[in-house]
């Protein structure tokens, strides 16, 4: 049983030294437990926050040093002492960065037969659900309005933009690099996409939004938000989903305090800016999301791009790359053959 543990807490961007690959015995399930074999491991930006000493408010604790990195997985039940699960069952679980894990079954969701089970970690799972709730319940896009989303080809952003198009909005993406921008327009159907590395990024974004921005789905924060703020319209909605530009920062940025600019914009433009944590919404909202999303994907109205990495041993590099924009689509590690 291979597992990747947190070897040391990172300072800034994690390095390979923050992780360690260990070999342990395959655990044996006790009464009520199942033994899971990991097939696919999801890599997600929130994992960076769990590596810090002080956990984010939405998590009960951070990862203890020396413990396996946590993570959502598609797993196969290989042994069961729980009447609800049989060997061979495919489940969505939280086995983390390891080959095998035990579960009491409470956190498992049966997947039945899925053509592409790894989609349960991306386009039919948590990231797409995040896009659906944040955009529709908080962003409330109307036909003809302009919706802007960054990390536009990523797990959440790609779905935000495509749903916004389905709702009749004009969609402008922001992504890192020409290839991603081309994909956003040509494959995902965005109206425009601006490269955040372009020296003239702010001016190009303004030019792509001649009627201002009605919904800004906030995935990244940082310099992108600086460029967006002056373009927001009166009555704009800003679902605050993530701010990945800050996840590796240990100190506040230097320079003048621009908080008054934000406060004045919020007030004068009557902007509604609302954070949300997707964990809060599963009970009342997941089934409706899955029904609608399954339909859209089946009908070819939404395209999902998976960025697959082979081998558990490559998870640390793949995760560090995710935090730097080296992923192109939903990043998933294939740990074992189905
Ligand atoms: P992505 O697949 O979008 O991957 C992360 C992307 O972020 C990178 O590919 C890169 O895209 C972009 N990025 C990285 N660093 C920066 C930076 N400094 N400035 C601007 N962009 C940057 O990840 P997810 O779709 O899984 O997550 C997107 C966001 O949603 C994250 O902030 C995440 O924390 C948040 N999230 C929040 C949830 C909630 O419950 N609130 C649930 C799930 C996700 P590029 O190089 O193309 O710009």
The ordered string of helix (H) and strand (E) elements is EEEHEEEEHEHEHEHEHEHEHEHE
Helical content, roughly? Answer: 25-40%
Ligand inventory: NADPH dihydro-nicotinamide-adenine-dinucleotide phosphate
Radius of gyration, in Å, reads 20 Å
Largest sheet: number of strands, sense, barrel closure: 7 strands, mixed
Discrete helix count:
9
What gross morphology would you assign? globular
Q: CATH-wise, what's the superfamily of the largest domain? A: NAD(P)-binding Rossmann-like Domain
Can you name the CATH architecture of the largest domain?
3-Layer(aba) Sandwich
Low-confidence stretches: none
Q: Name the CATH class of the largest domain.
A: Alpha Beta
CATH topology label of the largest domain: Rossmann fold
Number of strands: 15
Helix/strand-derived category reads alpha/beta
What's the rounded overall pLDDT mean? 97
Q: For the terminal residues, how far apart are their CA atoms?
A: 17 Å
Strand content: 15-25%
In the residues, how many domains can be counted?
A: 2
What would you say this structure looks like, in words?
There is one protein chain. With 338 residues, the chain is α/β, with parallel strands linked by helices. The chain contains nine helices and 15 strands. The chain has helices at residues 46-50, 126-139, 157-166, 178-186, 201-208, 222-228, 259-268, 282-298, 315-323, and strands spanning 2-6, 19-23, 34-42, 73-80, 90-93, 100-103, 109-110, 146-150, 170-175, 192-195, 213-217, 232-240, 272-275, 306-310, 330-334. The strands form three sheets. Strands 3, 4, 5, 6, 7, 14 and 15 form a seven-stranded mixed β-sheet that branches. A six-stranded parallel β-sheet has the order 10-9-8-11-12-13, sandwiched between helices. A two-stranded antiparallel ribbon has the order 1-2. Strand 14, helix 9 (315-323) and strand 15 form a beta-alpha-beta unit. It is globular and about 60 Å long. It starts with a strand and ends with a strand. The protein binds NADPH dihydro-nicotinamide-adenine-dinucleotide phosphate (NDP). The site of NADPH dihydro-nicotinamide-adenine-dinucleotide phosphate has 31 residues, from helix 2 and helix 6. NADPH dihydro-nicotinamide-adenine-dinucleotide phosphate (NDP) is lined by residues 44-46, 127, 130, 150-151, 153-157, 175-176, 180, 196, 219-220, 222, 224, 241-242, 244-245, 276-278, 322, 325, 327, 330.
């Amino acid at each position: 049983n291979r597992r990747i543990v947190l070897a040391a807490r990172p300072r800034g961007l994690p390095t390979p030294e923050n992780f360690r690959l260990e070999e342990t015995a395959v655990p044996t399930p006790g009464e009520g437990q199942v033994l899971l074999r990991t097939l696919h491991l999801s890599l997600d930006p929130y994992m960076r926050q769990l590596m810090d000493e002080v956990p984010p408010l939405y998590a009960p604790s951070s990862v203890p040093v020396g413990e396996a990195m946590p993570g959502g997985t598609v797993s196969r039940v290989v042994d069961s002492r729980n009447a609800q699960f049989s060997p061979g069952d495919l489940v969505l679980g939280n086995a983390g960065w390891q080959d095998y894990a035990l579960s009491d079954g409470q956190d498992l969701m049966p997947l039945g037969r899925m053509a592409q089970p790894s989609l349960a970690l991306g386009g039919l799972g948590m990231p797409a659900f995040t896009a659906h709730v944040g955009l529709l319940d908080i962003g409330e896009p109307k036909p003809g309005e302009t919706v802007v989303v960054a990390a536009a080809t990523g797990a959440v952003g790609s779905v935000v933009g495509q749903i916004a198009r389905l709702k009749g909005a004009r969609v402008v993406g922001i992504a890192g690099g020409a290839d991603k921008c081309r994909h956003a327009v040509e494959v995902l159907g965005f109206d425009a996409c601006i490269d955040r590395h372009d020296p003239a990024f702010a001016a190009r974004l303004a030019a792509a939004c001649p009627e201002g921005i009605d919904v800004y789905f906030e995935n990244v924060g940082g310099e992108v938000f600086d460029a967006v703020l002056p373009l927001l319209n009166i009555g704009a909605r800003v679902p605050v989903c993530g701010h990945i530009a800050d996840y590796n920062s240990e100190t506040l940025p230097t320079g003048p305090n621009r908080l008054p600019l934000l406060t004045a914009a919020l007030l004068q433009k009557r902007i509604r800016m609302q954070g949300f944590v997707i964990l809060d919404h599963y009970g009342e909202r997941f089934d409706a999301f899955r029904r609608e999303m399954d339909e859209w994907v089946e009908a070819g109205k939404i395209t999902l791009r998976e960025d697959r990495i082979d081998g558990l041993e490559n998870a640390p590099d793949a995760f560090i790359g995710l935090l730097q924009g080296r992923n192109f689509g939903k990043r998933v590690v294939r740990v074992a053959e189905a």
